[in-house]
Amino acid sequence: MPNVTISTDARPRLVTTAIELRDAVAAARADGKTIGLAPTMGALHGGHLSLVRASLAQCDYTIVTIFVNPTQFGPHEDLGEYPRTLETDLDALSQCGVDLVFAPTNDGIYPKGFSTYVDPPRVAEALEGQCRRGHFRGVTTVVLKLFNLAQADVAFFGQKDYQQSLVIRWMVQDLDFPIEVRVCPTVREPDGLAMSSRNRYLSQPEREQALTLWRSLKLAVELFAQGESDAERITARMRELFEQTNINRVDYVALADPETLQPVHQIQASTVALVAAYVGDTRLIDNCRIGNDE
Ligand code: AMP
User: Fold this and answer.
1) What is the atom index within ligand 1 of the atom nearest the CA of 186?
2) Do residues 212 and 191 lie in contact, with contact meaning Cβ atoms separated by under 8 Å?
3) Which of 48, 76, 135, 265 is catalytic?
4) What is the pLDDT of residues 20-38, one digit of tens each?
């Protein structure tokens, strides 16, 4: 018998230009398909794939964008080192059955002379907005461009980037953009560490230390369940965990209103706990709702 290998994992179609993307979208629309969009910066992991699966389940045609967006990185951040793994990403997406991958070039998104930016909503000002000046301006600008190009019905984002999901929701509402934003739960490693493309920067000892973020969030949930509602006392206990594990660069440990991200003094079931810290040179973020343990 001839040695025949049958592959069921077809690679998704890859396009790199706006024209190709628009043509593919027009064809899908002409077929009456609903379109789902999952914007990513690549180096795909289970968190990204959960957005893709949500889109595949809810829409007829799923587009994944892969673009390491330079305008959302600060001058001293990791833009140069950020992992770029397009081939592996396409393999991972083959197993899901994605329809189209859009991986534009920098010049494709920001051609010579580009100078129009989207001023992010108020909810961008706190937390990440304080620590990463200009970050959300880059996010809103690229996401609005991707929305314009993909003309999707639904866009999928992760709760892992809680503030980002609020920023996008407000942008869509304030600018009347005709797209539905869905936020998918944070996907974690078996020990609780939130999946992140940046986890691959961590050495083995740092990987252990990184668990502190999740442990601090769980501590907040536990303390609330035990009847503690004073935000200052809870954040003090959370900060102790960071000290105990020698994580010295903590950008914030916050208990905030889930819609405005303003700090709360007395916490409630809806309060969101958010943390950001450097483990070695790697900046990690995580969050969880106090009342519902995801
Ligand atoms: P990024 O590639 O980091 O820009 O992330 C692209 C999208 O994937 C964003 O909507 C993120 O919130 C989402 N995402 C990243 N990590 C996770 C995770 N662990 N669980 C769920 N969604 C995630």
Assistant:
1) 20
2) no
3) 48
4) 999 999 999 999 999 999 9
